[in-house]
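To close the chapter, one final illustration. This time we ask the reader to focus less on the individual chains and more on the assembly as a whole: which components sit near each other, and how the overall shape emerges from the parts.
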Amino acid sequence: MSQLAQYIAEKRQQKPILSMTHVVYGYPSVKESLDWMATLLEAGADFIEVQFPFSDPVADGPTIVAACHGALHDQTLTVEQCLKDIGQLGRDFPQARIALMSYLNPMYRYGLEKLVKRCAEENILGLILPDLPYEQAGELREYCNAHGVDPVWLVTPVTPKDRLAFLASEARGFLYCVARSGVTGNSNHNGKQQSLDDYLAEINEHTNAPIGVGFGIREKAHVDALKGKADVAIIGSALLDAYNKGGKEEGLKLFNSLFNA
Amino acid sequence: MQSNNGYYGEFGGSYIPEILYSSQQQILHAFEEAKNDPAFIAELKDTWQNYSGRPTPLTFCKNLTDHFGGAQIYLKREDLNQSGAHKMNNVIGQALLVKRMGKKRVIAETGAGQHGVATALIAARLGLECTIYMGAKDVKRQYPNVFWMKQLGATVVPVAEGAQTLRDALDEALRDWSSSHEDSHYLIGTTCGCAPFPEMVAFFQSVIGEEVKEQSMAQFGQYPDRLYACVGGGSNACGLFLPFLEEKEVEMFGVEAGGKGLELGQHSIRLSNGLGQKGIAQGFATMFLQDENGQLQETHSIAAGLDYVGVSPIIAHLAQEGRIQMTYAMDDEVVEACALLLKKEGIIPALESSHALAGAFKDAPNLPKESRIVINLSGRGDKDIFNIAKAMNDATFPDFLEDYLADYNEHLSENNNQGEA
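The assembled structure is written out below.
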C-alpha cells in the first residue's frame, strides 16, 4: 500500500476529514512562507501542499497567480532549496505530511528523475503537477514507482466517465478531485454540473485510494459537506486571501473555523 | 505536416490541465473530420476567396532586385488579406470549425492585436461572441487595434499579470477556457499550444505555400530557390514552408527578432545561438527563453507580434533537423529594411514581416542572378505607423499628434456640452 494512502487511512480513524492547506513557497518571502507553513502545522493541518512558483501558472486563478509572480519578482527560487526547506519542515512536524505542487517546466528543468529521488529522500510522498496529464507522464510514473512517491492525478466533473474510472483506478496516495470547472479561487463558472455528491459517489466506485477535494472550498459548510464522502479537504485560494488580508492571524482564523470549530 | 500523435520530434504534445481534456479531444476529432469533409473545405475556400481576397499575389520586385544585384526577389502578399495580415487564413478556418462544433463563443489571445482584430472580424461575420485577451502593455502600444476590436463588438480584456504581454495574454485565455470550455472555443492565433492546435493552424496557413507553388510555376516555371519568413509563434513561416518540405532543393530561412541585443530580455531569439532551451509550458514542449530554474523570461522586439517566449513545435523540430535555417534581424536593421521596401517598391510592410525582409536582404546580393527568393510579406504596416514614425525619428509626427489631440478634446467637450444643454 502507498505510504501516503496508509497515512491518510490511519489519520482518518481519528478525524472525519483531513485538512490540506496550500502555501506558495517564497511568498511573500521564503522565510515568511516557511513560518506560515509551520504555523498551520502547529494548528493541526494534516498536510501542507507546497506550491513551487512558476512564471506561467495556467491552472491557477488571480490570488495564486499574484502570489507566484510576487514570489518570483525579486528573488531566485531553486527547486533544490525548496526541497531542503520543506524536507526540514516535515522532520520538524512528523505527524503531518508535505506534498509538492508545481507546474512541469521548473521540475523538468531540475530533472524529473532527480526530483522524485530527492522527494523520497525528504519524505515528500505526493507530487501534484496539474499540467502533466497521465498519458504524458510515463517517465515520471516509472521514477515514482521506483522511489515510493505518488504522482497525484486530477479528475474533474467534466472528465469523461471511462477516463474517470481509469484515473481513479490508477490513483495511489490520493486522488485529487477538482470540485468544479475553472481555475483555483473564486468561481465565475455557472455551467450545468452534476451534484458534488453524485460526482464523489461515482469516483468512490472506481478507487481504493483516498479522495481529496479542492477548488472553491471557502466555508465550513463546504468542508462539512465532504465528510463521509471524501478524505481530505484541500484549501488554497481562500486561505491565501485571508493571509493577504490579515497575515497569519487572519489565515489561522479561517483554518480554525474550517477544521477546528 | 502530420504530427506523430501530437509530437514533432521531441516537441509538441499536449500538456494541459485535466479540466480541458474533453474540449481538447472534441477539437481533435472535429478537426480530423472537417479536414476530410469536402463540404467544409469548399466553404473554407469560398470564405478565403470572397471574404479575405485570396489568392494573394506573388509580386516580383524589380527595383529591389536591381538594387541588390543578386537574387530575383518576390514577395508573397499576405498583407493584402482582409485584416491586413495572414492571421485571417487561420481565423476563418477555426471559426468555421466553431460553427461546426456548435459553440457560440470564441476566446483569443493577441500580442500586436492583428490576431485579435482578425478574430473579432470573423466573429462579427459569423455571429459569435468574442473575448480577446491582450497584455496591458500591448493594449497601450497597439491602441488602434484595440479600438477596432471593440467597434467590432469584441470584449477586450487587458491582462495586467506578469510582463503584461502576449505570453500573459495566452495564460489568461487558457484560464478563461478552463471555466468556459462547454460553450467556448479557444481560437489560438499561432502554431503553438497543445495538440492539435499547431497542426490545425499550420493546416489553415498552408494555403500560403500552396499558392506560392502554383504561382511560381506559372510565373517562372519552377519552385523558388529560397523562402524567407519571420518567426514569432511561427504561423506564417509554417504556412509558407510546409508545402515545400518535400522539395529538397528549396531552402528555407526563418528570421527571429534580434531586438536590441543578445542579452536575455532584449530579444526573442529562441532557435539559434543557443539562447533558447527546451521546456514544457503553455500546453506544449518547445524551445523557450527561460532561466536555469525554468522560469519563462521577458522578451523584446520592435514588432509586438514577434516577442513571444516560445515558438511553434513544428518550427523548433525542423530547425533542429536542419531543414529550416534560423537567423535573426536586429530592430534597427528591421526599420532599414522597412524603409527600403517603401522607397523601392511602394509597399508598406508590417514590422514583423520586415524581419523577413531584413534577413533576405542580407543574403540577396551574394546569390546568383538566376536564383529566385520568395519573402513572406505576412502583414501590412499601417498598424505600425506610430512605432515606425518613432523608429525613423520623424520630427514632425509629435506636432501632428498634439494638434490632433487638441482637436479631439475640443470635439469631445463640445459634444458633452451639447449633451448637458
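The first helix of chain A runs from residue 3 to 12. DSSP finds eleven helices and nine strands in chain A. With these observations in hand, you are ready for the problems at the end of the chapter.
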